[in-house]
Specification:
Subcellular location: Membrane
Organism: Decorospora gaudefroyi
GO cellular component, one term: plasma membrane
Order of helices and strands: HEEHEEEEEEEEHH
Shape: rod-shaped
Strand content: 5-15%
Number of strands: 10
Distance between the termini: 101 Å
Strand order of the largest sheet: 2-4-3-8-1-5
Membrane topology: Single-pass membrane protein
Main location: membrane
């Protein structure tokens, strides 16, 4: 019963860890200042595509719109005076001043969801953002720099003062290729490792508990057999069963010597095993 409760608690803890790991993998979808359409119409310049990114940081999500399109999101970001815009899940519009970090860029095939208001255009993917420059400025736009303490697997710069990398507004509309690998920590692998460690510890504890229980059962069986033998010996008129074998020797039993007394014709108090010399007077 104790083992079943322990296993149930362990399974619940494993499910919580897996849920937390899955939650960490999801991008930030918090909506700030929900805006569906721009309140005013402002002149817009040509947009420049940057590529697909797995997270919207440091952009801000302005919510979804049933008829979302790149042009509609561009006007929203221009109204907010933001240089960078992003589209995700086919309906969400993001705006910001910096392009997400290069380490977070993924393959372009990840952003394959069409826009809810324009089937001919792509508006990101499931949890992924298609990032575009709004054309507000003709100056280069900076990439977001990942804080060193936020990811242990981030690549370290080779110089002591590395300048921010920039993307020119005149870049080609063709999306940039994806980087070699993702720098975000694999929280799923960490959670799985923790669960495996807990399971191993549980197996060790159960093994120790089983051995101790088995030892107690064997001791109880030996005590039962010994008591049963003593009872049988008592019922049959014999001696009690003990672990000392020397007590079974009849020569050491005082009561056995008393059994030599009898009522026969031979006197037991005389020794006939040797001749007796008798002296008589002549």
């Amino acid at each position: 019963m104790v083992y079943i409760r322990f296993a149930s608690a362990l399974a619940a803890a494993s499910m919580l860890l897996m849920a937390a790991a899955a939650e960490d993998d999801k991008p930030n979808t918090t909506v700030k200042d929900h805006i569906e359409t721009p309140s005013v119409t402002l002149p817009a310049s040509a947009m420049t595509s940057i590529g697909c990114f797995e997270t919207g940081t440091p952009l801000e999500n302005h919510g979804d719109y049933d008829f979302q399109s790149p042009g509609n999101c561009q006007l929203i970001c221009i109204e907010q005076k933001k240089n960078v815009m992003g589209l995700s899940d086919g309906v969400n519009c993001w705006c910001g001043d910096e392009i997400p970090a290069k380490e977070w860029q993924t393959g372009n095939d990840t952003c394959s969801t069409t826009c809810s208001g324009d089937d001919t255009s792509l508006c990101g993917g499931k949890g992924s953002l298609w990032v575009v420059l709004t054309g507000v400025t003709r100056n280069p736009v900076d990439y977001y720099e990942i804080p060193k303490s936020s990811s242990s697997s981030s690549r370290q710069p080779t110089s002591t003062a590395a300048p921010k990398s920039t993307a020119a507004a005149s870049a080609s509309a063709t999306p940039n290729p994806a980087p070699e690998e993702d720098s975000k920590p694999n929280t799923v692998a960490i959670a799985v490792g923790v669960v495996v460690g807990i399971l191993g510890l549980a197996c060790i504890v159960f093994g120790v508990w089983f051995l101790l229980r088995r030892r107690r059962q064997r001791q109880a069986e030996e005590d039962y057999r010994r008591n049963a033998a003593n009872v049988n010996a008592f019922v049959n008129g014999g001696k009690l069963h003990t672990s000392n074998s020397s007590m079974n020797d009849s020569r050491l039993d005082p009561s056995f010597m008393d059994r030599r007394q009898s009522n026969g014709s031979i006197a037991d108090n005389e020794d006939y095993s040797r001749r007796i010399l008798k002296v008589t007077n002549v």
